[in-house]
Known about the structure:
The complex is a heterodimer of chains A (about 350) and B (about 500).
Chain A: H1 3-35, H2 40-43, H3 71-78, H4 86-121, H5 129-150, H6 157-173, H7 189-224, H8 230-233, H9 238-271, H10 279-298, H11 306-329
Helix pairs in contact in A: 1-4, 1-6, 4-5, 5-6, 5-7, 7-9, 7-11, 9-10, 10-11
Chain B: H1 2-20, H2 32-39, H3 43-49, H4 59-88, E1 103-109, H5 113-126, E2 130-134, E3 137-142, H6 144-170, E4 172-179, E5 183-185, E6 193-196, E7 208-219, E8 229-240, E9 247-251, E10 257-259, E11 262-279, E12 284-289, E13 293-294, E14 301-307, E15 314-322, E16 325-328, E17 331-334, E18 343-351, E19 371-373, E20 375-376, E21 379-380, E22 382-386, E23 390-392, E24 398-415, H7 419-438, E25 442-452, E26 455-464, H8 472-480
The complex binds protoporphyrin IX containing FE.
Protoporphyrin IX containing FE sits at the interface of chains B and A.
Amino acid sequence: MTLPSMETLAQLSDNLVYSAIAVYALAMLAYAALSARRPEAHRQQPAAAPAVEATIGARADPGSRRSVGAPGEEARDATGPAPHTDASVNAVDRLSAIAAALTILGFLLHLSGVVARGFAAGRAPWGNMYEFAVVAALAAAAAFLVFLRREPVRALGVWITAIVVLTLGLSVTVLYTPAGALVPVLNSYWLVIHVAAAITAGGVFTIGAVAILLYRLRLRAERRGPAHTGYAGRLPAASTLNRVAHTANLFAFPIWTFAVIAGAIWAENSWGRYWGWDPKETWAFITWVLYAAYLHAEATAGWRGTKASWFALLGYAAFVFNFFGVNMWISGLHSYAGI
Amino acid sequence: MRTAVILLGLLALAAVPGSLLPQRNVASDPNAVLQFTQDNPTLAPWLDRLGLFEVYASPWFAAIYILLLVSMTGCVIPRCLRLWRAVRADPPPAPSSFVRLSERREVHAAQCPSEALRAIAADLKSRGFRVRTTGGEVRAERGYARELGNLLFHLSLLVLLAGIALGRLFGFEGRVALVEGAGFSNVVSQYDEFSPRALTDVEGLEPFSFTLNDFEASFETADEKRGEPRQFRAELEYRPDDGSTSKAVEVEPNHPLDVNETKVFLTGHGYAPKVTVRDGRGDVVFTGPVIFLPNDASYASDGVVKAPDARPTELGFEGFFLPTAAVGDRGPYSAFPDALNPQLFLTAFTGDLGMSDGPPQSVYTLVKDDLQQVRADGRPFAKALSVGDTMRLPNGEGSLTFDGVARFANFQIAYDPGKEVSLVAAALLLLGVTTSLLIRRRRVWVRVVASGPDGTRLEAGALPLTRRGGITGEIDAVLTAVSDEREKSSDRPDTERAAGPEKE
Ligand code: HEM
């Protein structure tokens, strides 16, 4: 590849990322408008209905399986009686479709930007902080879209798109590094695999973390009583949000495990030891242990729900700190070009 | 499980201080603990007493993970036994009423009861269920692999510990810095720094030797990332012990030299200015390259030259080396990491270097207790030298000539006999955790509700044994094996499906 075309590609990549930011921002507005609707919006989401145990939060009476009784009715009580007309349902459906379409468009622009960057640099496009952040945001958007197909996560949309816009905004301003070759230590295919896995896990963990935050918000409202209003009142049932969070974290955990192992293999290849308690390794370990604690807590009677959610949130905090904090504030062997 | 959660939480917490405080045998900077102690003279001894400079080797850290593994073993072994019994036993009988099952369907089949049940049993079997047909009902269960995966995961943690322990007991790590042209043989005395473990066979290190023929470094010259490293390569002449001829090998970052599991890694490099020191009598008392340690990304480096044989007085030089010297507002600095305009900035000392008596000293620092700085015009005597320049001490006590520039490379040499065990453990761990998290264990029962000349009415129920249920489709699929109407009857509204059941 000749030099000018590489520069053109790099420029193209930057422009695509900028366009993606704009489109994601529009998606965020659409999701925000959806979140501001009355609760019948959620009626369309299948899993919002079973709120039988939602009102008592995570501590469901073991005897009361959801299939008992007529959860549909109760659910509507719990989320507030909402007379819905066809017109309003249609409007919500349309807005929801627009928001999803915008997210998909933003994602495609974003993805093209990352691919162009890869061609411009002639390598996997995750070799410095700028690229890590851009690809991590891509992973979060991708995870959200995947979840959107299978789970009632529309309520997460406004937050996920906000996180993506924020991360991309930070990337293009504070973290920006022009496309280029790698410093020699980073030039290893194990690193490519390791970072790709870590970033993918991070994207899915992000869904989990947002779902958990909304879960806690919603749970607080539910505990105050069934007639809650406001933002929390328009969220899906707490049990639904917790289940989404659990699913996300459950999927991300093996990916994260793999990322840590691939990192260890790379470290062995690069420094002669597979584990050396370098700060980056240490925080990867802390993240892993906290999520393991979360999974255990979710399987422990009396800890499921609120208590367990603390571990997931701490795990996510450790992940984010490792991603940004360790690179910026703690010196170690992990050398990242650009910052 | 509560114990596990608490201990895991503790383990995470205990790992934090080690990433914030400097650690012995861990940090990239071996002097970090010393530096920290100097900066915090009152706090440091206390932190040290608590093991906070060696968190990951401290007894309290070990206590947490050993407790965790013990409690895990205690929990997992009984589970193994239970799983073994469950796999050998038949799936349990159906509950008396299916109403409380999360999934329930009724279907009408054209066959007679026994044929219908047989068809269903065959279908379930082909789906990987363990099936038992008795007294008008089919009992089936699948997803045992989930438990197996969970056990594999937990037990592989023990294997991992064994792998780590092997390395910690029998392995070693060492470091050596070699200037271009210098040789190394793999015996303890040739290391700059050697950390054996408790049971390392120190006398029996893998026998080999090599010479660093050449070290190449290239750096980005384009504007934006000017000076960023692009390639490092050490060209070695490697000599195996078996008497076979030596051969040229290249060692680069991520591409170590591997001699029967003893690996030689390139971990850094720098400059070694070549100097010749003459003493007051005019005799050459030192000549050769001297390693200067880089202290920033542009390879501005610090170092000393010692000439203990100089007479009438011993000579010492201290200063810095700039590969591409430039002068800025705050004095000279290095503008580029490559040696484009190398300059040596030195001050001189006379007196007693303290090398003949006293404790062994670092080759990178002068012990100035018995040294006097050479002064000229009332100020310390200092000189900037380009290649070929000579600095002569003002009172004729000697001189130093800057002959040229060589590079040196840092090698880390490591041996870890537990590595393969750890790798296998990691693979099992990954396999285990993935299986245990993705596979869903569930039971299915099908029984006859009524039968008549026009066929059989069947009732099917399913019970997920894991939190992630989502087995709705499965029971429908099972029933299509016999259904003649594809009729569904569920006591649950469709809207609830996606929610899936939640195990308490
Ligand atoms: C005190 C020792 C431990 C005990 C008693 C224990 C027990 C268990 C049990 C009974 C399960 C099954 C949970 C379920 O079926 O939902 C489980 C799952 C799991 N354990 Fe442990 N474990 C221990 C230690 C560990 C450790 C040290 C780790 C790794 C950091 C770990 C990671 C996991 C994971 C990832 C799962 C899957 C969670 C799930 O199925 O939702 N465990 N553990």
